[in-house]
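Write out this protein's structure.
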Amino acid sequence: MYLKKHMALGIGLIMAIASISGCRSEKTVPQNKEEQNKETQAAAGTHAQQPESKVITVFHYMGQSVKQDSLVKLEEAYMEAHPEITFENIFYNQGTDYFPQLSTALASGEQPDIIMGNPAMYPDLIKNGYAMDLSDNKVIKNMGLDQYDLNDVSAEGKVYAVPIDFKTSGIFYNKKIFEEHGIEIPKTRTQLKSVIQKLHDEGIDPFIDVYGEGSTGDLETRSTIWPRAIAAGDLDIFEKWMSGEAKVADYPYVEEALSVWDDRMMYPRTDAMANNQDKALELFIAGEGAMIFTGNWNIGEIEARGKDRGFEFDFFVPPIDDTENSGKMGVLVDQCFMVNPNADALDESLGFLEYWVTDGALTWSEGTLMPLITGVSSDKLLPVVRTIAEVKKSGNYVSQGAFTKPLNTEFTNAWRKALISYAESVVTGKPMTHEECIANIQSMFDDVIATN
């Protein structure tokens, strides 16, 4: 069975596609299957018409190899039952090229069938009719999701994407270092500061910093902002920021989030601003630091790289004050996919996504080590994945779906740029004040509002 799996190098009137898997797919039914069908038809004395060949194009931003490989595995399994279908996978980096290239592809007429993304972050897709309304889809309704999970794949009150799994962020730690130094999981902010101080005093970098990655400041601060905003009933905080109705400084827990983040930047590494995700994960696996603040989307990569080195790690939710277990895990749908109602393989695309969240769900979770949004688990999953799933089941989490709207792409980019600028000021020893950071964020937000 051949698979169409390509990385797009440019999309316009002419699409140049480079193969990710190293082999080019064929749109025809494999010879052995074709011969088998002919023999069956001849024996039955029938002349059944073969199903029309269809290509499902999947436009996505899953950069991790374990996710790309698992997608291929799902597609191959689906093609076994549907030999008339082949797949074409097109990958772009979400932070730089994804949306511009997607826009170009949609405008060119070479429209993808399946589009990755949170509908609320891509309002133009909804407005221009490139996402199918899935509010009445029976498979989604039977997944047993709460309203917050559904909100996370909705826009303007309608469900527009099929949710696959969920992502969260927090502190991943080196189990060996913690055990060798007699460190227990901190349950309060003061205890975490003591752990950081102890590690530093004993010559160990407390954290592997990832400030070469634009999303890090967002992850670090949302662990405080989300639970505080939800507890205060400020569910429209992001909507008000985007409309200009409220200012960043109107919410005191933004300043608190910077203060909590400061604790984790007490002893930054000299390579703090140079480390992107890839470099940081390698340093963490090599034992160059005890902890890393990142997301569960990296579990598969950590496991793949560290397994042969005997690397063991686990996860805890970062505390934000001195009340025990004050931290709450922030949850949002990770992999989710929209179906383009204008594309050629509409029914086939929806059928594949329905297969993904039913019969193919555990194949995906076990391959990627991502927890399923349904909570379905398996003993084949790593303990760290089960830890995260158990936190969600316990109810000690807050969901992005609780908010009326998330920050859209332009505001998210401004937010992240301002926070990384703040991190750079701290790690270089010339920290801007919290007030200056908040003013900088507001200035960037004002520019987005003025532009729009």
